[in-house]
Structure formats: C-alpha cells, structure tokens
Amino acid sequence: MPEVTSISATIPALPPLPVDESLALSVVIVSFNTRETLRRCLELLQSELDRISPDRISPDRLNPDRLTGVSSEILVVDNASTDGSAEMVQHSFPAVRLLRSPVNLGFGGANNLALGASRGHTLLLLNSDAFLTQPVLPELLPLFHADPSIGILGIAQLSRDGSLQPSARRFHTLWRDACMMTGLAERFPRNRLWAAVFGGLDRKWANTAHPVDADWLPGAFLLLRRSLLDTIGLFDERFFLYLEEVDLCHRARRAGWRIVYRPEFSVLHLGGESAGSVNAALDAPPSHQVVLWRMRSTLLYYRKWRSRETRAAAALELALYRLRWLRNRWSSSPARRQRARHALQLIALMRQAWRDTRGGRLSPPRPW
Predict the structure, then answer these.
(1) 3-class DSSP state for residue 148?
(2) What does CATH list as the number for 5-168+207-275?
(3) What predicted TM-score, i.e. pTM, was given to this entire model?
C-alpha cells in the first residue's frame, strides 16, 4: 500500500512510449464492478468506431497515403472488480486490451495505467456507464483536430430521462460552493445575471447550441491531446476519487490550453442518476466512504489551488451541516429527524476528512 504523500508531490509523467501514427484514437475505460453496463458501453463504442471514416480523422497529422491504415484501440482497466467484469471482457471482447489491477487504483490512477500503455495520438476517456447512443465521434474528431488550441473537449451528458446533467463547469471557490450547497444556484439557473453571481459551479446559462470555453469538464467523456499530457503530466493520483478531472483541467488551463464544451453532441451517462442515491442512503457504510472520499478530495484540492481558503472551505461545510441539524433535530417529522441524523454523520465525516488529510496537506494511502 502506498505511503501517505504530500499534496505538493510530483505529478506522474506520460511514459515515453512510441506513438503509433496509424492509431488515430485510443479509448480508455475504467471499470469497477460494472460488468453489464461495461458490456453495453463496449458494444455501442465498437459500433461507433465502425462508423468512423479514416479520411475524417486528423488529416493534419496523417499522411493521406496512409489513411487506409487508420485505426483505433480500446483499453479497459479493471479496478479489482469482483463481479466478473474482467472475465466478461476477455470472453466477449477479445480485441480489447484488458489491464487488470490487483487493487482499486481510483479513477486517476487507473486512467494513468491505461494512458501510459496507449499508443494513439488522440485519447478518449469514457466512463463504463457512458453510452454513445448517437453518432458522435465521426463529426467530433475532425472538429477537435481543426483547432490545435483545444487541449480537452467534452460534450453534453444526458441522464436516462434525457435531462441535461452539469456538463460545463467552473472552478471551485468558497462563494460558488456556498451557492451550490445552500441551493442559491438552483433558484433561477437560466437567468444569466443570477447565474453569473449565484450560479455555483455549473454554467447552465451557457448550455445552448453553441460551443463554450469552460473551466473544467466531467470525466465521463473527455477527448484529450497526447501533446497536452506531454506538457502537464497525467492525473494527480493523490485524488483517489473526485476532483481528478478538475485538477487536470486546472493544470491544462494554466499551461495555456483551452477546455471546450460542445453541447450539440451528447452521451448518455447513467452516473448522474446513481450519484443521487448517495445522500438518500447515507446511513449505509459504503455511502459513508463515498462522501468521505469527496470531502478528502475537496480539502486536497483547496490546499493545492486555494491554500489560504482550505480551513474556510471545511468550516463552510461544517456550518451548513450544523444549521441543518439545528433546523431538523426537534421536528415531529420522521423525515426531518432523519435529515438531522444525516447532518451529524456529515459533520463527523468532515472532521475525519480533515484528520485524514491533515487539513488537505497529505493524501491518505490508497485504497482508502
């Protein structure tokens, strides 16, 4: 098990493997106990890749005489699953490059494992619960390559019911986090003036039919340039779960790359729906762990990027949880008393996260 590491430690670099110019695209999928969703994801992905015409992919990088050799590769990292996911990939998708980890490396560590082994000059990070139900890549790849200033590109992420998930985000600040946690951001989300002041992390007013530059994009679907990773390095593995892509985009922006959101393309992402069950099942120990991972990553992120505000970020969450507890503790409603118990659990978890990370200064060992 890795030792506790300082948040100022070195970012892993992309290994100097030779890039295969005949590989236009490397798709990386990380899976942890998602056998059936992974199966559907791979089926739809393969169908999508079969639609791509070679002459539409990166003509600026490939010799036209070699376009017939353009191809792609799919790499799946199994993060120590116990549901037979790895065996399913081996049996049903023999062409997929399967990388099996004996321990759960987290999102960033598992992606780093595959990125270091990939050979394509364009990289797509795709969640195992993200489904390409509509043609995306044949049109998106040429747009991506047409503008070399774009380092990371994302698309609209839709829930099962077709509703739009937060897909173009802004960096964390105390004010934006407070607006999200207090509900101010949701009062008038489509009002540009309100959203500019109280909009929290989301850019809902910008989710139109037009591309927009964002601070960061969710990791369920991310197109990356290999030259970007050559410049800024891989994911910071001290973020075991949550905020890994935020940190990556932060480093990309600081290095001068653009982060672009294209809302005219979309992917079905089931994760947005499943995440909503975390708070509802907060009494369950696994959910405790998910919330604790989020809190640890929040403190690590603030210490890394907004160091002077780290203690205030923890104090903000604690204050809001205490107010929730005071508001509901004496209620005659069972549901409100349940919320009061949850608030006490959240207070305890934030205090533990502060101890575990020593105020955001150290990343605890993984797997946590």
Answers:
(1) coil
(2) 3.90.550.10
(3) 0.88
